[in-house]
Amino acid sequence: MFILPRVVIAGLRCAVCLYVPIMAAGALYGQSVQEVLEAADRIYADTPTFSAQVDSRTVRFEPVSGQLDGTPSYNAVSTQYKRMQIRVRRPNAYWLSIQSAVEGGSGMPDSAAITRGQSQGWSVFARQDNGTASRGYYEGPRFVSQPLGNEPFMVMVSARMGGRLDADLVLRHFQVRPAGTGGLKPLGLIEPELIGSETLNGSSTYRIIAKTAAGSPILLWVEQSSFLIVRSIMQYASPSMSKRQVIVEESFYNRQQLNPSFSAADFNLGKSPPPEPLSAEQMGFISIPELAKLAELPPAVDAEPAGMPATPVPPKPASPPVVAAASPPPAVTGQSLSYQNMSSIVLIEGEGGAATGFMTKIRGVDFIVTNLHVLSGSKKVTIKNLNGQELSVAGIFGAAGSDVAIIRTTSAPQGEMVLAQDVFASSQIGDRVVVVGNRLGGGVATQTVGSIMGIGPTRVEVNANFEPGNSGSPIFNLRTNEVIGVATYAETRPVNAGGNSRGAVAVPEKRWFGYRIDSVVKWEAIDLGKWNAQGERIAKFREASKALLAIVNFDFKTARMTPPFGPLIDKLESNYKSAGTNKMTANGFVKDFFRVVQSLSALGLKDLESGDYYDYYRTSLYWDTSIPAQIEFRKELIKSLERYEADTSAYMSRLRNGG
Q: For residue 188, how far is the Cα from the chain centroid?
């Protein structure tokens, strides 16, 4: 019962749950954003040995005098670069080479800015399995080695690996801890959203925005094939400074190896040669003005050093991927609508959450208008007006080919909301609109203003950034005093802003859409029990597809959670083990397994293809509830299973190696 964010990736639309179809290795894979983050967390948490090179940059931005239009601007006042070479063998053995360079002044992003008279430092830390720890560094040409106790070693290394606010999502999994303490920290991100895909260093990545547990916005790139985090950008404010600064931390995780083979010698301090001076160009960072754009900080006009080529400036996204700690809320008016208009607003609650509706007349009959997706998962919905009076539900109807519901009520009509009879004829692009409703499910009606951005045959686009809870809110044209649409979903898509040494720079653009009511040509009666039963059948089919995907990805732990795959997997592993070195017998067991799984994968397809379902499920824009999308995804999974049956060598290899 929330505004449904839709994400467009590679031309495919998907739903609020963000199971995004991705073409990879000849198969169509789908993941939810939460599953992607959980997979990344499990990979790092379950890795006993790890090595990587981590290049990071911390830039401090300071507000300067505003531009002519009053927009605040920021200039980079200092930049710190760091390169860390890391080897870890849990729980005791570590080897870290840490190199840093601090640059003050204008924040120039070229290599000369780092190497000209700026402070540079390097040191190496090592601890062996027996607990012997030491530190090495250079004093001029002389290499100095000094022993360290366990406590100083843990303090010094953990501080360098954890970063400010424990922000480094990869390295904090490997922080030095006393033996037996355990308790690895998970990613701990909140409000994650998948905003696109991007090629980075030749690999396809998911691009995700979220917040850390401390509330700091963060932008992540997660490799689609391995779920390794390969880049991150986090922003937070520094209120302790005399001037309020905004800090942006960017990290690249290069040369990551899971479970490399180490010897005891790999964790000896030794005498390491001094490293080469750090180079921003060598480290592959984009220019600081481009970083400011990604972090949604308007840079000052002189932030780009003289002589540098002009940086492409991407369109300003409606909702920034990374925002300052004190980002402004949506533009909320005091009271743009009259008392009569506001009296029409109703608040809707059900098992799925909170939403909005409004009372109006359709062909002379009193109805409450909201979204169809508001009904999902609710055996009963409760509707109250702003005086707290509960309104009766006498019948529910859904628009064919649209996400609009009208609810017949026998309660006395309230307020005065008039529907536009022809939105295209009466409204114009640029007209001011207000969206009023239960924003964020707060149980109060607030008003968010904006303008019409576009008008289509079934939908309107506005820039009034409505949020979860606004599903079903009226989009009210302030010029014509008519309702032109029902606030339905937000869509985020990446906009390419040019290339750099790390691949294309893409920024998310957020858009807000509502369905027109005047374009509805057919309504069908909705029985809430039947509606929910159909939704549950689709959900069960979708969960089975997730289990099949897990089997394709050799994730037996996930697949076991969905009947009847658990017993099948247990039988496969038992049979494979009993076959021992007899490859022919083992191959037969694997083929039998995939024959059975293929047979199970066909179950439910006929029901979805020809069963009795409401039009909403057949025309839904949202991947979770779209019958065509679910059928397409299942058929692609079947193709992958058929390939495994035809050639079991890859799967048998993974079985031999324990996955």
A: 13
Q: Long-range contacts for 266-270 (Cβ within 8 Å, ≥24 apart)?
A: 266/87, 266/93, 266/95, 267/87, 267/89, 267/93, 267/94, 267/95, 267/126, 267/127, 267/128, 267/129, 268/126, 268/128, 269/124, 269/126, 269/134, 269/135, 269/136, 269/145, 270/126, 270/136
Count of CB atoms situated within 10 Å of the CB of 226: 14
Query: Would the pTM of this model clear 0.85, i.e. be above it?
Result: no
AA identity, residue 293 = K
CB-count burial class (<10 Å; 0-12, 13-18, 19+) for 324: buried
The alpha-carbon radius of gyration of the chain (Å, integer) is: 28
Both tokens of 20, joined, read: 């995004």
Give residue 309's pLDDT band: very low, low, confident or very high (50, 70, 90): very low
Distance, CA of 553 to CA of 547 (rounded, Å) = 10
Q: What's the mean pLDDT in 602-627?
A: 91
Token pair belonging to 112: 């000369």
Q: Is the pLDDT of residue 72 over 70?
A: no
CA distances from 298 to 237, 395, 594 (A): 15, 52, 55
578 burial class (0-12, 13-18, 19+ CB within 10 angstroms)? Answer: exposed
Burial class (CB in 10 A: 0-12, 13-18, 19+), 416: middle
Q: How far apart are the first and last CA of the chain?
A: 39
Q: Decide: 605 and 631 in contact? Cβ < 8 Å.
A: yes
- Label residue 307 by pLDDT band (50, 70, 90): very low
Q: Which of 158, 180, 12, 30 is nearest to 553 (CA)?
A: 30
* Complete domains list, the chain, with CATH: 39-294 (2.50.20), 332-524 (2.40.10.120), 527-656 (no CATH)
- Secondary structure of residue 540 in the 3-state scheme: helix
Contact call for residues 56 and 252 (beta carbons, < 8 A): yes
In contact, 51 and 87? CB cutoff 8 Å: yes
Closest CA relative to residue 565, chosen from 539, 542, 586, 546 = 546
Q: Is the pLDDT of residue 328 over 90?
A: no
CB-CB contact of 401 with 458 (8 Å)? yes
